[in-house]
Amino acid sequence: ENTATKKYTIAVIPGDGIGKEVTPWAQKALEKAAEGVAEFEYEPFDLGAERYLRDGSILPEDEEERIKKTDAILLGAVGDPRIKAGILERGLLLKLRFDLDQYVNLRPSKLYKGVTSPLANPGDIDFVVVREGTEGLYCGAGGAVRRNTPNEVATEVSINTAYGVERVVRYAFKLAMKRRKHITLVHKKNVLVNAGDMWQRIVDKVGEEYPEVTHDYSHIDAATIFLVSDPSKFDVILTDNLFGDILTDEAGAVVGGVGYSASGCINASDEYPSMFEPIHGSAPDIAGQNKANPTAAILSAAMLLEHLGFDEAAQRIHKAVEADIEELGSTVRTTDQVGKDILNRM
Amino acid sequence: ENTATKKYTIAVIPGDGIGKEVTPWAQKALEKAAEGVAEFEYEPFDLGAERYLRDGSILPEDEEERIKKTDAILLGAVGDPRIKAGILERGLLLKLRFDLDQYVNLRPSKLYKGVTSPLANPGDIDFVVVREGTEGLYCGAGGAVRRNTPNEVATEVSINTAYGVERVVRYAFKLAMKRRKHITLVHKKNVLVNAGDMWQRIVDKVGEEYPEVTHDYSHIDAATIFLVSDPSKFDVILTDNLFGDILTDEAGAVVGGVGYSASGCINASDEYPSMFEPIHGSAPDIAGQNKANPTAAILSAAMLLEHLGFDEAAQRIHKAVEADIEELGSTVRTTDQVGKDILNRM
Ligand SMILES: CC(C)[C@H](C(=O)O)[C@@H](O)C(=O)O
Ligand SMILES: CC(C)[C@H](C(=O)O)[C@@H](O)C(=O)O
User: Fold this and answer.
1) This prediction's pTM
2) Among the listed residues A116, A118, A106, the one whose alpha carbon sits nearest the alpha carbon of residue A227
3) What residues bind NAD(+), as annotated (chains A, B) (predicted)?
4) How far is B235 from B182, CA to CA, in rounded Å?
């Protein structure tokens, strides 16, 4: 027996819309990149809109338990216009992020050579957003009284803990040490004074342990300006769950479209598997048409490999993607063609 | 006596930083535009960082009472790095917006001829953001326990009422009727299900009374993409307090900088005066250097005139600003030079 290769189980959740078209390519890229290095076994999960419409289940307990036992998760996208907003997002995607305690939502933004940014002078864009993944306005607290009456009141509660903030702040500082050693905390501390003040204090405190890393602060509104006017100034952006959601979509647009943006929902304590997904959604408008760009999904496979410690295998994907985009980035191709082109280069 | 001109009292609050440099130009433009049409009396208020550092007051009750009795307010900017974030913003700016029940925060975004957008192909950008101004995460609800300990928990609560949402939704539909008759509701209803669902239901309901107005929906994250990839698609963007804050700064960047973006905090029921301000902040980095662009402040004077019903006088300002930008928009000028140039054209 080959004792040099390790065995891993990967949960595969294609989900909805274009998620189903791009995820097979992520899996193929993973497979090919890991040849001779690691052995992957895939466990597919039929979760998402079709399943929900068929039998009403969103994330059955026994399936979640099986997912928890895997080594990592490849996810496509979640969301379907036939289903009321929030049901699948909260019942499946966010439930996994929360239950599997994936507290670091890691979202690199890079302008690849060959991609046309919508900005006239984009500069050299290469930053990472470290988005908190298990707290804030995403925790599902809040409610409504007197629904459907003129006296309705609806609340949403953002819960933030020093425990939850400190661990993601530490992750960001460690990451900054491997990069250009600069962190920008993004919040809205002039309005959200309770949470904002806590984030700032914890960043200041942890920052003292990393004298080589400089850090500054930007309000979320100002940060959306800088992403357009001077995106190359960022190295590591550290922010909460909602602001991270907003900034990474804008960042995706700035680097030429969310079709190139992958993400990792990371349990950095390795108690549960981490999950890797493109940041784009299920894109119902182009689903089923073999039009979606699988690059982001393929890049999420590279992030999965890095997470498991296979940096060289991840590099194989990165190099193939970079070469593909540089040569063919502006050509209109089908999902399958892009997938094949990238795999052929690996 | 001249009975043709009406008399109005305008509260002037230059505030902090560049607010003090641009507000005098807003006042001069107002004065000149209204010549022969209306008579303005100005009541200056010394509020902001200097005052706070001098005697500890932020917004004394008697001064707020005097402000409430005026017909409209010209405000510069609030915020100073010497003072902990939130104190002036919440104690002065937001307190006025809330106490004066300025529930419509109206923020037009227009790409003027002569301004260079950071976008390579900006298209014809001309939309208005109708931002709710008295609810949501800005209401100051929330708190913290065990501050400064590892067990700290900090919350922020977004309070949303059918009463508060419906009135701003109605304003947006009325405004859309005077424009290109399209509204985009922006929220995050797949995560913030309580508030998002209420917003959507109220938009659907009020929309039935305006069959000529079409409306669609975009998640806040997707909206930040469209502002970069296809900003000309928007006519009226309708959104809550926080999302409106974020989108209007990004929109300001997209139309060539927040130096051209004015806003009105409007009490559309006319119980209290409305307030007009540039959307930019106090910009401490360039304050006191005669560098800030007073155009946004001058445009806020035009919004004030429109609000009081002086559309022709407002047009005088708009025309002068448009001509100035078209001819000299790309020239580096001092605050005073831009102010003089615009006034000379009126
Ligand atoms: C689908 C949605 C719940 C999700 C989020 O808001 O986190 C998505 O926008 C993302 O960024 O992964
Ligand atoms: C200064 C701050 C409180 C304010 C806000 O968040 O509303 C500003 O950003 C704005 O947009 O007017």
Assistant:
1) 0.97
2) A118
3) 281-293
4) 6
Kind of pairing between the strands at B214-219 and B6-15:
unpaired
Q: How many domains does chain A have?
A: 2
B92 shares a domain with B20: yes
Residue ending a domain, among B255, B289, B308, is B255
B283 annotated among ligand-binding-site residues:
yes
Going by pLDDT thresholds of 50, 70 and 90, the confidence category of residue B4 is low
Give the pair of three-digit tokens for residue B243.
């999302």
Q: Which stretch of DSSP H or E encloses residue A129?
A: strand A126-132
The parent domain of residue B164 ranges over: 117-123+134-255
Do residues A4 and A107 both lie within one domain? yes
Q: B158 vs A161: CB contact, 8 Å cut-off?
A: no
Cα(B245) to centroid(ligand 2), Å: 6
What pLDDT, in 10s, does the model give residues A288-332? 999 999 999 999 999 999 999 999 999 999 999 999 999 998 899
* A211 three-state secondary structure: coil
Is B142 inside a domain boundary? yes
DSSP string for A149-180? STT-EEEEEEEEEHHHHHHHHHHHHHHHHTTT
**DSSP strands (E only) in B45-96:** 72-77
The CATH number covering residue A327 comes to: 3.40.718.10
Same domain, B151 and B244: yes
Instruction: Tell me the chain B residues in contact with residue A148 when contact means C-beta distances shorter than 8 Å.
Output: 201
Instruction: Kindly report, residue by residue over B271-316, the tens digit of the pLDDT.
Output: 999 999 999 999 999 999 999 999 999 999 999 999 999 999 999 9
